[in-house]
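Let's do one together. I've listed all components of the complex below, 274 residues spread over two lines.
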Amino acid sequence: MTDDMETNFRGASVPEGIKYNADGLVPAIAQQYDSGEVLMMAWMNEKSIAETLTTGHVCYWSRSRSKFWRKGESSGQVQILKDFLWDCDGDTLLLMVDQKGVACHTGRRSCFYNAFRDGNPAIIADIVISPDELYGK
Amino acid sequence: MTDDMETNFRGASVPEGIKYNADGLVPAIAQQYDSGEVLMMAWMNEKSIAETLTTGHVCYWSRSRSKFWRKGESSGQVQILKDFLWDCDGDTLLLMVDQKGVACHTGRRSCFYNAFRDGNPAIIADIVISPDELYGK
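Okay, and this is what the predicted structure of the assembly comes out as:
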């Protein structure tokens, strides 16, 4: 993949056929475009999709805060959109992104750091940036 | 990654701290464990997680049919579980799988085959196995 992937979605409108849930939201998976690492899953509404396609910076909808969640706005850990995909049923999005720094609020690269090892729950990824540093405490 | 990844979750119980939604479900992303390709997103409940960890074959919960969806049961396109991860908030699962054949009911390898090209919606993946062949028509 090349750096000019953004030309793929430049000028695109929110795709028809996306199935939003009762709250007007659709789940969006963020995947690092070159390494393939799955970074996180969050939710988008029609307006956050439109903003993301227009700006090329990923904007989710925060269910807990009921407002736009411009990824990296407070932490600086932005996601540059590289490609925008959706699935056969139109009920899930896959965002190919270039994640600056870390995706997870815990300071880990990916939010998916819990797994089983030898049958027991284990944390399988290290903290890369301390949350204090991320959120300026 | 090796073929004995299954030893990681052998004997594991459904992890505590998973946050199910009002319907008792949690979204599960399936990713091909070696190539990193994101294949699909579906839903699991506690019992389908338990079955998946016990059998090593991925079992979702079908929201449309309100029953267990043992992936590949009718199509033969099973998903062998290689690793089982969950995120920082416990509200999304990431299944590292070995997808036999194709994940998508359309006969494509991945369900994420819709994207924009030159700003217009486009299908970016070919059909590998015809749905007629998959479902024995």
